[in-house]
Design brief:
104 residues, mainly alpha, 80% helix
C-alpha cells in the first residue's frame, strides 16, 4: 500500500468506527429515554436513530453504485480491447450488436 492509500484506509475506518459508536450510543439512549423526564427526549433519540438508519441505507446504495461503476468500466475495457485496431467489417456481429444496445 502506498502512504496515501494507507491514510485513506485509516480515515475511512476511523469514520466507520465513529459512526458505529454514535449509533450504539443512541441505541443505549433509546433504551433509557423513557426514564428521562425531558419532554421530547425520546422522540429526538428516535429521530436520530432513524437518521442513522437512513445514512446506513444511503451508504450501502453508494457502495453498490461504486461497485457497478467499476464493473461497467471493466466490461467497457474488454469491449474496447476486442475492437481496437479493427475495421467495422472485422468486428464480429455479436459485438456490433452489443455496441448498438449500449449506445441506446
Amino acid at each position: 500500500l502506498s502512504a496515501r492509500s494507507a491514510d485513506d484506509i485509516v480515515k475511512h475506518t476511523g469514520r466507520e468506527y465513529a459512526f458505529q459508536t454514535a449509533k450504539e450510543f443512541f441505541v443505549v439512549l433509546e433504551a433509557v429515554s423513557v426514564a428521562v423526564p425531558v419532554p421530547g427526549f425520546a422522540a429526538a433519540v428516535k429521530a436520530a436513530l432513524n437518521i442513522i438508519k437512513a445514512c446506513e441505507e444511503s451508504h450501502a446504495t453508494i457502495e453498490r453504485a461504486q461497485d457497478l461503476k467499476f464493473r461497467i468500466k471493466a466490461l467497457v475495457v474488454i469491449l474496447v480491447n476486442a475492437v481496437k485496431g479493427k475495421t467495422v467489417k472485422e468486428i464480429p456481429p455479436r459485438i456490433l450488436a452489443d455496441i448498438e444496445k449500449l449506445s441506446r
